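Reviewer 2 asked us to include a model.

Predict the structure of this chain.
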Amino acid sequence: MVASIDGSTALDGASAGLSSDADREVLLTLRSIADLIIVGAGTVRSEGYGVPNKPGQRIGVVSRSGDVDVASRLFASGAGFLILPEDAPHTSVESVRAGVGELDLRAALRRLPGSPAFVQAEGGASLNGALAAADLLDEINITTSPLLVGGSGSRATSHGPQISHRFDLVDLLVDDGFIFSRYVRQPGPSA
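Predicted model (structure tokens):
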């Protein structure tokens, strides 16, 4: 994730305006080692997701309704699939379904194709909030952009209940005003 110094994860509706070449390199490096990527449908639309660079890598698009452009390169290539509640409308796109009414992320992640060991979540904020609420985040990589943007942009997690999970800072790098932080979940119960 990337966020401004005042906490916004978007500038003009997308994260690209907050990013830098080094931030994009970090993202691409993490993508290159991930077995599978999950991302919210809104982020796929706003960020223009396409076919992954890593051969065979899949992208699971989380949605409540399955309302996606099935003709987009991501889905037409077969790299994209949907992660939906069981009672979401039928779709022609391959899907993993779990939960009734609301998506059961814990069950859905257990059903991901290929039993991936490293699943990278790429947002948006609502998906991150749901993953945090379900206690499914083991590591957080966040870039702090040296921009103050104001407005009403989302935080890195939103639309979830208040929680308190402790993470340890394990890596920190500063480059041209950007701060790259890697946090790893502390073992044991939540605070």
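Residues 147 and 178 are 9 Å apart (CA to CA). The beta strands are 2-4, 36-40, 58-62, 80-84, 95-97, 119-121, 139-145, 167-175, 178-185. We have added this to the supplementary material.
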